[in-house]
Amino acid sequence: MIKCTGHYGSPARIAADVHALLLFSNPSAADAAIARIAPGLQGVVKQLRASGQFTGKADERVAVPTAESRFILVGLGAMEELTIERLRRAGAQAARAVSHASKLAVYCPLDEHVRKIPAVSFPDAVTAMAEGALLALYKYDAFVGKKKQEKSTQLSEILIATVDEGFQSRMKDAIQHALVLAEAVEYARNLSNAPANVLHPEALAREAVALGKKLLVNTVVLNRSEIATNKMGGLLAVNRGSEHEPRFIVMEYNDKKRRLKPWVLVGKGITFDSGGLSIKPASAMEDMKTDMSGAAVVLATIMAAAKLKLPLRIVGLIPVTDNMTGGAAMCPGDIITMSDGSTVEVLNTDAEGRLILADALVYAQRYKPAGVIDVATLTGAIVVALATHATGMMGTDADMMNALREAGERCHERVWELPLYEEYGTMLESDVADMKNVAGRWGGAITAAAFLRHFAGDAPWVHLDIAGTSTFEKATDYHPKGATGIGVRLLTEFLRTRGAE
Fold it and tell me: Which residues are known to be catalytic?
C-alpha cells in the first residue's frame, strides 16, 4: 500500500515532486485558493482561464511546469455543486496525471469554501481525496516480471495538504480511514484478479484462515465431509465435476460479543465458472476467475471492519468451489436436495451460484441474525438491466435496502432496487421437484433472487448482484480494468452507520 500522510502548509513548505491544486470553476473561489496556496501561480492561472485551457470544470486537468517543481490543476466544477464523489475523482485525476515522480501533494479546497457546502465536511473531503488517489494507483502485477515492473514508475507517497490551521488531528483520522478502505479494496481486487490455477478452493480457504489469524478473527473452514454432514446439497452438487474439494468458510468478527445479533455477510466463492455441462462459450469464460468476487468482497469487508474496530458482531459465510465439467459433473435434469430439505431440479448447470448461496443462507439462520446480505456475481441479466453503473438489489427488508442505498450514494457504489413480487417465485415451480434453478429467459436477475429468498428464512435479507460492477473492461477514474472491489466500501459504510446507531 502506498504511503499517505497529512500535512499543513503550502508548496513552499511541503517537499513534493508534484503539487496538485483542486480548483472550483467559480473565478473568485479559484483566485482565493491560488492566492492562499500558491500565489506565484496567480498570473499563470489567469492566463490559462483566459485562453480556455483551464476553466475549473469537473474532471478538467492541466499540468503547469515551473522552475521549482511541477503543478497540476484539477477542476472541481461549480462550488455550489461540490460533492464527495467530485473530490474522490479529483484525487484520482491528480494521481493518474503523475509520472516519473515519487511524491505527490494534493491540496484541500479552502475551509471557507467547503463550509458553504452542507453535504461535505472537512474529514469527508480528506477521506475522499485520499481514497480516490490511492484507489486510482492500483496495479495487479503479482505475475509481472521484475524488469517490466522496473519500467513502470509508481508514486511511493501521497501527501494530503491544507493551508488552513487546526485540522491536523481530523486530517490524520480521515486519512487513516481512507487507507483502511483502500487496503481492503486492493485486497479484494487482488483476490478476484488471481488466476484460478493459483486461487483454487483450497487456496482461498487458506487465505481466509491467514487473514483471520492476522486480524484475530475466529475462522473455521469446513471440509467436504463436514459440508456433507451439514447436508449442503447445492455446494456438493456444483463441486462434483471438480478435482478440487469444496470448502465452506466461516469467519466471526467480535464472536465473543454474544449479546449482539450478528450481521451475516454471504459471498459467492466460485473460483472458476466454466458453466459446467451447460458450458459457456470460450469468450464468456475469459473473466470467470472473478466469479468469486462476492467472496473477495466479504473477506475484505471483514478486514475493514476489524481495522476500523466497528462495534458490531459480523459473520462471514463463503461457500467455495469451482464449476467444472469432470466425469461426475452435475447434469441438466438432476434433482438435488438442499440443506433445508428442499429439492431442486437443475435445468442449467451454469446457474450454480444460487445453489451454493442457498446452502449458505440456510446456514446463516442458525445465528438468528440482525440481517443477512449476500453478495454475488450472480446473473448476466443484471448487466443487461443496469450495465456496469449500479449493483442490483433485491430483498425482504425495506429499512436495510434504504440504508444500503444511502451508503451507496455516499461512497458512490450505487445500488438499484428491483421488484421481488411473489409472482417471480411461481416462475420457479417444477413438475418434478420443489423448485427449479432457472425460470427461463425473462427477469433472470429477479428470479435468481427469488430462488435465494426461498432459503433466506425470516431474518431481514438483501441480495446484491454485482455481476456488472465487479469487473470493468476499461479503467475509470479510480477503478482499474479488471476487478474493481466494488461492494467493499458499500458494505463497510453500511456497517459503519449501523455501528454508529
Answer: 280, 354
